[in-house]
Amino acid sequence: xxxxxxxxxxxxxxxxxxxxxxxxxxxxxxxxxxxxxxxxxxxxxxxxxxxxxxxxxxxxxxxxxxxxxxxxxxxxxxxxxxxxxxxxxxxxxxxxxxxxxxxxxxxxxxxxxxxxxxxxxxxxxxxxxxxxxxxxxxxxxxxxxxxxxxxxxxxxxxxxxxxxxxxxxxxxxxxxxxxxxxxxxxxxxxxxxxxxxxxxxxxxxxxxxxxxxxxxxxxxxxxxxxxxxxxxxxxxxxxxxxxxxxxxxxxxxxxxxxxxxxxxxxxxxxxxxxxxxxxxxxxxxxxxxxxxxxxxxxxxxxxxxxxxxxxxxxxxxxxxxxxxxxxxxxxxxxxxxxxxxxxxxxxxxxxxxxxxxxxxxxxxxxxxxxxxxxxxxxxxxxxxxxxxxxxxxxxxxxxxxxxxxxxxxxxxxxxxxxxxxxxxxxxxxxxxxxxxxxxxxxxxxxxxxxxxxxxxxxxxxxxxxxxxxxxxxxxxxxxxxxxxxxxxxxxxxxx
Length: 495
Fold this sequence. Notes:
By secondary structure, this protein is of the alpha/beta class. The chain has 15 helices and 26 strands.
């Protein structure tokens, strides 16, 4: 049986995902077989495993930190919000269906056997399992039949580390308030408190820590400094969305309400002199060097949103001067028409942006597969991408085809262009992570602007991420009491 430890937070974005990743890295460095686990994740950033199964990207990131391949048993339940009151429910990597929040709340207990089975499968390959909670364990309206916070901890007899975010203020109230709202049996399994994202002189914080330990009755296991890391985020609270500074090469990503897989663009952030800005209005768009239309969990709804707030018109006007690149849902938007005959999203049909000679039919069956190969011949500013190797994955609900007046098999094309050579579309997530594809694109944009900009053509994005995991682990070793954490590890006992 694997030993277990769990990280819960006082709120979303308290830093749970990174702390789990860091602990995974530390345990790996110390010679253990370690794996991450999150019973239920809510995120629009997802990944496709080798088996063609869908899981949250946060657990993929944590698996990378642990030095193992991602497996869907690390995240047996994934909720992908489709609107404000409902989500697509994915169980064991496959779509179960769309549910309203209230319906899922009543149904979720039936998924407990799936959670147990996934956890047991993970126990077969791991010495230590680091479990991540979701949101806060103090959400009293959600505690009934909980399967992701204290319910999960009690299921596997996991000691809990409770994390608060001091950078957002009120960390003492966060931690003490959470403890006050826990039941006695829940409180008994909280073994340590962590103050995360601290800036400044810790000696000034010490009186507060003393008070916290006295009133809460639980030791502070560590005060983690604010870390400048570039690792993948999983939800809409990411700080990336607030970056507005422009670099020598300015890339704009349209941030629609149901943006998904914005991890596609993280690699560009590692290139010196490049800015990646997420924009929600015409006023924020300005004059970038390239516009990305990212994936979407509601392609038709997000296209309507762009149409209503003027971003569609602005993008189309700018497309006469700069390249536009759509990925997945953004690729579908670039076409002439989107049909939804089976009411996968909103039903009916919608006119696309009419920048690519394609049309898309949304279908109930989700396309899920890892892909690799060579980029087809393309023209325009990114013509140098032709013939370059790529790997990635596809995850979409829809089939796209050329309209009848254009010959060629669209299925054979990784990147699709039309008569206009500056419009590009692809279904492949992770396309820009491959080799030096991102560098080639940036250098092409620089030449167009008439500026000299040499990127690292030998940049290995995976190697860069490995260095970030090591940096994360080094920081946690310095500021966490690892002796106490190792003392908390104990065997899980499934009911």
